[in-house]
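Hi U.,

Before I forget, here's the chain from the pilot set. I'm dumping it here mostly so it's searchable later in email.
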Amino acid sequence: MRLNKFIAQATGISRRAADAAIELGDVLVNDTLPSAGHAVTPEDVIRYKGRTLVNNANPTQTTIMLNKPVGYICSRDGQGGQTIYDLLPRELKHLKPVGRLDKHSSGLLLLTTDGQLAYELTHPKFNKSKTYKIALNRPLAEQDYLQIHKQGVELDDGPSKLELERINTTDDNNWKVTMSEGRNRQIRRTFEALDYNVVKLHRTHFGPYILDSLKPGTYKPVEQ
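Structure:
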């Protein structure tokens, strides 16, 4: 197996990013700088940015589903705050999140070593849908519902159109939102543009993965 493929599988980064890491000297094989075309053997000790990567003849991928609670950051550096890695045991702290949820959002978060899976779930060309349950600070007016659901709202980075469905037919504060894009804080920014605040945002579905009854702050392995 080529070194860039091994690093991508072991860390979750892309092969292009792995090539860049090799070129920058962030990768050591048996404590020496490798060539770009190095073929990994089971005897090689491979370090990426100082961390030893698991090396076996038939590397397996690890993917877990985490129910992220509110207040946790999807980052290794919480700058004094809590991060999702505080919820994981040591042997899973190398996993990388697929997409992100902001500090004030909760719900389904996938973490994996599988760079190809992460790519297929996040690249726009695969059109993977995500579903959220949200609560607004005030009832959504009919004209604003139509604009978001039918016409779209113009944001700084382009138009945003979300599929909206009432969770309860008599409640205009709580909605199910389905989308296939993944722009930063897109749901919150879409409603903010029409003078609403999203006071709760909880992801329940991501592509084929469903949160179901997983308790907040807990995780489970998923089959690929």
